[in-house]
Amino acid sequence: MVSIPNRVMSKQYQYTKDSVSLTNEQRDFYEENGYIVFRNLVDSDILDECKNHFIDFCNKKTEAVVLTVMKDVHLKSTNAKGELLINKIQNFLYDEVLFKYVSYKPMVDILRSIIGPNITGCHSMLINKPPNSTKDASRHPLHQDLHYFPFRPANSIVASWTAMETINEQNGCLFVVPGSHKGELMKHGYPPNVKNKAYHGVFGLDHLPTVNLTMEKGDTVFFHPILLHGSGPNLTKGFRKAISCHYADSNCHFIDVSGTIQEMIEKEILEIAERRGFGNGNFQTVWKAKSRICKRLGGFRPPKKIKMEAPMTSDIVIISGNSHPDLANLISKRLDVKNGGCAVYHKTNRETMVEIGDSVRGKDIFIIQTGTKDVNNNIMELLIMAYACKTSSANSIVAVIPYLPYSKQCKMRKRGCIVSKLLAKMMCSSGLTHVITMDLHQKEIQGFFDCPVDNLRASPFLLQYIQECIPDYRNAVIVAGNPGTAKKATSYAERLRLGIAVIHGEQKVAESDEVDGRYSPPAVPRSRTMDAGDGVPVHPAKEKPPINVVGDVGGRIAIMVDDLIDDVHSFVTAAEVLKERGAYKIYVLATHGLLSSDAPRLIEDSPIDEVVVTNTIPHELQKMQCHKIKTVDISILLSEAIRRIHNKESMSYLFKNVTLED
Asked: CA–CA distance from 253 to each of 466, 484, 621 (Å)?
């Protein structure tokens, strides 16, 4: 067994991330108890603005973007109106006044320490316990918030709950069961005499010890979604107000709750949604509609719109094929340019057909098309779209190809050819005047094209992921999966100031795929053959060398880097070797994630903890099959490249913090 040094003990933290926002004592408290209170965290001015906005909304003096208004069932038969009748508003993430609380920076800094840098607000509430309530009317029994959420993992979800005034046992403070976050999600239902919709609770837990959280204005508690908690009735003569939001890591995945203990709440929420005009949605759609990104991992922040003297829609058109429509939509939204009307389809004989609906005459055309498993259709769609624009008198035609197909076939192999050179000639002949791509397998491929090629790099985004999303990354070592990727690994290690290790002796490539350096395989004339004489020494059969690790990975985090993850067998084998050598966590980072065949299953069953790829290639299906696959969005980089090329600006800004070895 490998002895792990004291400096890596943070690996024991299960519910928090490495960050300067939480001290070790605060992390220890949250890890042990499942909640932590920060005194006077939220500024009074923000709370007062939110409170006044809520009161004006209750009295119909202002409008608010609120999806759900909850009224106390016990008071409906009375003449109660406005603030007295409304005990809660929910899902106000798109109300700009109330969103000031949700996105409050000191709070977001703490959230980064609990769930990471990609923060999405998913459920918001302003709770208004009316005065002189009966015990059953406003008391919320013990419950777990995960009961309401169809997404996981639970450790990537956290709630904030802020007192908008003094809150104590008399006016209904929160009470929690410390340490209960370490348990499982329990079955919920309606306790006796509770009539308010969705006030679910867990039965038979009255024997558990609870802690009352008395709070002053601005005090904020953060707690885990499995933590058992509730609130008491308001027995005073004044209102009791609090504001709350649940946050999740933006990389959380949805689950199917059919046949589970969450099936009942799914039906209730869908019934509520149907009454509010969302009748065609499902449980996941409803939650997506209620959510809003608060903080997202990324590098630079380009302008949201292209700044031009002339209207941008007059001379720029973005079209896309069928390879990656989600990426095309992200780029269009970032540039505030409508995705042009281009229909790409296949006839019954499998021929590719392209119909461009809008005029492209004299305009700058950007075609977004990447390489996927359907590689040959992707190529034909791109070529035909480009040629259609060329024959329609477009001013320029720029192909945005995040992953260039056939880029691995860029060298001469025995009795083969350089396919990437052939593809480059075809693209230029179709009418392309410029190509934008990312992390080519070999940078020399740019020389095959007769037009300019910008080979962007994803390394700044992956480096930032390492720094912000890998706990205790300072104790990591960058690993080259084979000697060929040692330069890339060295480049990452130098910028992160980490050590490097190299896996040597990986499986050899097939003899038919070996590069022999020839431009073409010459034939041997018969007239020049001769007898070898007494015989030629017999060469020994090739043996697969044993796999060795050059460098120390014991008691460390191993981070393997590469440009492409396709067949994952070599990565799984490398991970097993690293685990044997004492690495306690293993990450694999790459720009392109093809993840072919049974890659998700192999990754799920392997010692690999996370596979991180960008969205140059669509892999949503693989993410559903394997929770270890994470995505870094690079649409912001491609959008800025398009903006700069269109405005004829320098591209050098996009190559900051990159090296020749990336």
From this structure: 21, 35, 11
List the structure tokens of 326.
């989600």
Burial of 290 (0-12, 13-18, 19+ CB in 10 A): buried
Question: Considering the chain, what is the average pLDDT of its residues?
Answer: 84
Q: Where are the domains of the chain?
A: 11-295, 312-456, 459-507+545-633
Residue 209 clears pLDDT 50, i.e. is over it: yes
Closest CA to 500 of 481, 479, 483, 473: 479
Separation of CA 133 from chain center: 44
Closest CA to 547 of 514, 570, 515, 513: 570
What whole-number distance in Å separates Cα of residue 546 and Cα of residue 540?
17
471 three-class SS? coil
Residue 14 CA to residue 27 CA, distance in Å, equals: 10
Q: Which residues pair with 355 in a beta bridge?
A: 343
86, β-bridge pairs: 71
Highest averaged pLDDT of the listed ranges 4-18, 441-455, 503-517: 441-455
* pLDDT of res. 299: 37
In the CATH hierarchy, which fold is given to the domain comprising 11-295? Jelly Rolls (2.60.120)
SS3 245: strand
* 11-295 and 459-507+545-633: identical CATH topology: no
Total length of the chain: 662
Mean pLDDT of 597-611: 94
- Which has the closest alpha carbon to 604: 635, 571, 631? 571
Phi, psi of 262 (to 5 degrees): -95, 0
Confidence of residue 643 (pLDDT cuts 50, 70, 90): very high
Give the residue with greater pLDDT, 395 vs 528: 395
DSSP-derived 3-state class of residue 480:
strand
In 299-418, alpha helices (H): 325-335, 375-391
Which of helix, strand or coil describes residue 559? strand
> What's the whole-model pTM score?
0.55
Please say whether the beta carbons of 107 and 294 come within 8 A: no
Q: Are strands 364-368 and 396-401 parallel, antiparallel or unpaired?
A: parallel
Indicate the CATH number for domain 312-456: 3.40.50.2020
Whether pLDDT at 226 is above 90 = yes
pLDDT digits (tens, 9 = 90+) for 342-394: 888 877 788 888 888 888 999 999 999 999 999 999 999 999 999 999 999 99
